[in-house]
Specification:
82 residues, mainly alpha, globular, Transgly_assoc, GlsB/YeaQ/YmgE family stress response membrane protein, cell membrane, transmembrane helix
């Protein structure tokens, strides 16, 4: 059940991150969910490294959104046309 909950929260975080960040994104359902899940994982590991979260504790919805926005920004930097 934890995995299903993570996917649902990840999808919602990906949708909110895409809505907040400017620009046009051509992501479908699966890429949006993957973006949110990756953002949640990124926020969890960074939060644990900085001792904001205890081991085994997840970042939560706001952390997942912030992580997804960071991933969107990194993707933009890497795919920017010169």
């Amino acid at each position: 059940m934890h995995l299903v909950w993570t996917i649902c929260i990840g999808f919602l975080a990906g949708v909110v991150a895409r809505w907040i960040s400017p620009g046009r994104h051509a992501f479908g359902f699966f890429l949006t969910a993957a973006l949110g899940i990756a953002g949640a994982v990124l926020a969890t590991y960074i939060g644990q490294a900085l001792h904001w979260y205890a081991p085994g504790e997840s970042s939560g919805f706001i952390g997942a959104i912030v992580g997804a926005i960071v991933l969107l920004a990194l993707g933009r930097l890497l795919t920017r046309k010169s």
